[in-house]
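Kindly go through one protein, given below as sequence and tokens. The question is how this chain folds according to its tokens.

***
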Amino acid sequence: MSLQYIYFIIFVVLAYVIVTDNSVASAVVLITRMIRFQYEKTKWWLIHNPANPVVKYMMWSRSMKLAKELEKELNDRHQQ
């Protein structure tokens, strides 16, 4: 038997158990929600982690842009 047949048999057995038993179906739903939540949490951490050099650069560039805007506004008010 090839490995594909073994995977197919496992899939069919799991599908049968999910369809016939409500508690297994709800467990599968909860497990998929848990996996999705963990994925979203990890993705958020990677995007917003200050130790990440890309995030550091993005924070620096936003701060520099804001600083230049504030400096320009301050100079405009000071000249008036």
Remarks:
- The radius of gyration is 27 Å.
